[in-house]
User: What shape does this take?
Amino acid sequence: MKKILNLLMIISIISILFSCKKSDEFLDKKPLGDYSETAVWTDPSLVETFVNSMYRNALGFPFNIERLSDYSDESHFTCGWGVHDFNKSLMTSDGLLGWNTSWDNDHEPAAQTYHYMWAPLYMNVRRANIFFSRINNVVSDPDAIVTRLKGEAYFMRAWTYFYLTNLYGGVPIITKAYTLTDEFAVPRNSYDDCIKYIVGQIDSAAMNLPVVYSDASDKGRVTKGAALAFKARVLLYAASDLHNPAKNSVVTAGFSKPELLGYTAGDATARWTAAKNAAKAVIDLGTYSLYKATPAATDSVANNFVELFTSKGTSEDILLQFFTPKTDENWAGYNPGLYCGPNGYHCWGNNAPLGELVDDYEMKDGSKFDWNNPVQKANPYVKREARFYATILYEGVQWRVRPPDALKVDPFSRIQTGYVYNGTTMIKAGLDTRSGPFEDWNGGYTGYYVRKWVDPMPDPQYVKQDVPFKHLRYGEVLLNYAEACIELGQDAEARTYINIIRTRAGQPEIAASVTGDALRQAYRHERRIEMAYEDQRFWDVRRWVIGPAAYQQTHKVDIRYTASTATVAAYRQPDGSAWSAPNYSPAVIDGDARAWLNKAYFFPIMRDEMNKNDKLVQNPGY
Assistant: This one.
């Protein structure tokens, strides 16, 4: 798409070149390779490139070697790199541990979380403010280009402030690009002020954005529908428990400035109604629909989900972030297949699904999976719901063909995350374990690998996929609408929309007898499963104020086969069968006993920012 696929382009804005030479001819030359400030703000194409960079700064790298899922109860980050300490709530105003450090704990921050920090977020605010201070100087033909660029900039400024408020609560609302002579010490605005500002920015974006783009090269740009869907998300988060004065005392008790963390007055019902209406506005557009909403009897529902999450655009997609195999040559940028794949495929085994997530996938009949059920324990991956098979790589499942060297060891190309024992002695490790023969240091710790988002066609060892990330999709809109209905006591309406999601997933409907808090819990379970690995769970845990339940000792699956001989040639017998019936059991992941402190519902403002601005108030607990 037009320039947006190259979001690494950086615009150099300069005013004048200095020189000791006397030649006027030299001084009259235009800079080569750079653009003057005047040139940028008179050329719509250069302004468009300026706006393109705001996409990259705001959306970041959701497919980085680290994923936001690693910081919630979805996945385990194999490398560590401080992430495990972050998950023990050990962050302080002097450091966010794995959130803002890299592989060497010294140089570049992790790309996935860098754009979720105070300074980078405000850098993008500044970029938006520069845009609005100059855009009226731009003359274009047709004027629609400038109108659309304004809409995109409004959207990106709102998106940036939304994450600032998610992380810190109320923050200073800055609407101009500061110069060196400006006063930098400004106080935080209230949470209420920030949400009103964000919603106003989104409304302005919606007025300036097209419903669709006629040019396919503009695929990936924000639309009116994206603005409306984003508004629904903002209002849903704002109405949630974390910001409700009747439900957030674990955060605000004893804090002198509760208005920075949520509402202190107003009507919670009105806030939920606004969230409901915003989601309904997207539904009523009639522009979007679930991908394969009513599976045919002959459909593989799991394959439908694989298609959805490896596609480059469907009827369900509202805001996609595109990548290409050339996006960021840096190994820490974009390469989800390599980063997540099993080490037995020469991949790096990161973002491995936790046992807690895997166990939450229902059985096909809608019942809960239970390790205490002897039938289910004996075959834990049989008769599970379709989204399980589309999201998780597990013991024995066939995936893509192994690389040539591994294919000699495993000609069946089936995931191997278990061990063969003779008595109490381990005699053969699976290829995809940390004791396997291929890159054991890249083996995951959980017994699972992530399937969702990973395109099985290219060989991830050598080829980057080009699957886009779905920042906004219609499935989320339906869930947002259902959640608002539940909080308004409109259970029947909520069940209708939850069941739309479940029908597409091939799961039985939630019964009419499920009401009140039971329906709320059923909804939260549905959202956890439907939105897994979509950068939702981290925020949901916080806005629902369920941190203690989500940050506990994590679990893996221990898989053992028993052989009657002291040695075996391979993990499986020559015909592909196992040496015995497997013994599956949950076990703790050593070193990943997570812990929750209520301060972690919000981030600390870093000490250097506090030192630069004496009007800032620190969040509680820091």
